[in-house]
Amino acid sequence: MTYLQLVNNVLKRLRERTVATIDETTYATMIGMLVNDAKHEVEQAWDWSALRTTLTATTTAGAFAYELTGAGDDVKMLDVINDTSNWFMTYKTASDFNNYYLNTNPSQGAPRYYSFNGIDDNGDTIVEVFPPPNGEYLIRFNIVNRQADLSDEADVLLCPSKPVEMLAYAKAVEERGEDGGQSALSAYSTANRVLNDALSLDQAKHPEELIWTAP
After folding, report:
1. Which of 33, 66, 130, 184 has the most other CB atoms within 10 Å of its CB?
2. Cβ pair 159, 147 in contact under 8 A
3. Residue pair 4/114 in contact by the 8 Å Cβ criterion
4. 215 found inside a domain
5. Which residue range is the domain that position 21 belongs to?
6. pLDDT tens per residue, range 112-133
7. How far is CA 150 from CA 48, 153, 154, in A?
8. 154 belongs to a structural domain
9. Is residue 214 part of a domain?
């Protein structure tokens, strides 16, 4: 569903006239902001299948820091694979990496470990690897890449649309006080029920992630 369709669906629920562009009226612009607020909350509720993707980086000898271009800083790492060496890489803390690189003189080799070290000038997450590569290795980063705020009318929402629509509507009801007898509490209750239904459907695709295993 597009950004404009989401905004117009919320406007219809509020018995307001629909718009051709989101900045057509001040009220539609506000609804657009509420849609993005709702999108953010829904995205944070679960690692949605639609937000899962793989980014890659090819190492160069001696370079241990790599930007996850396009990932931003609101990213969750699922796993990291050294595809050239055919093994999963293991997370290490920033303190571990400081020790590896500042207190020792590490030999180059095939990367086995990864850690995070801030963001670059574009706001993308920086990942470091260890040991420092001794050549080219293809590293695959399987991540949950949450979508940037919707801005253009044609921007397509990636996560489930109905929970976003219903939560944005609840926020709009709360903002105006009530909507024809519909209280904000009732609207939020409906939004939560719709979100839980969507969660159940998507979580069924990854049941292993709902099972806690002792370390």
Report:
1. 66
2. yes
3. no
4. no
5. 3-47+159-205
6. 999 999 999 999 999 999 999 9
7. 17, 8, 9
8. no
9. no
Q: Does one domain contain both 54 and 140?
A: yes
91 residue type, one letter = Y
For 67-111, write each residue's pLDDT tens digit.
999 898 889 999 999 999 999 999 999 999 999 999 989 999 999
Q: How many domains would you assign to the chain?
A: 2
Burial of 86 (0-12, 13-18, 19+ CB in 10 A): exposed
Question: Could you count the other beta carbons within 10 Å of the beta carbon of residue 157?
Answer: 21
Single out the residue of 65, 83, 60 nearest to residue 125, CA to CA. Answer: 65
- pLDDT tens string 8-64: 999 999 999 999 999 999 999 999 999 999 999 999 999 999 999 999 999 999 999
Contacts of 200 (CB under 8 A, 6+ apart): none
